[in-house]
Amino acid sequence: STSPLPAQRLPSRQLDLTGVFFSNDKGYALINDEIVMEGDVIDGVTVKRITLDEVEIQDIDSTIKLLNPKK
Question: The whole model's pTM is what?
Answer without folding.
Answer: 0.78
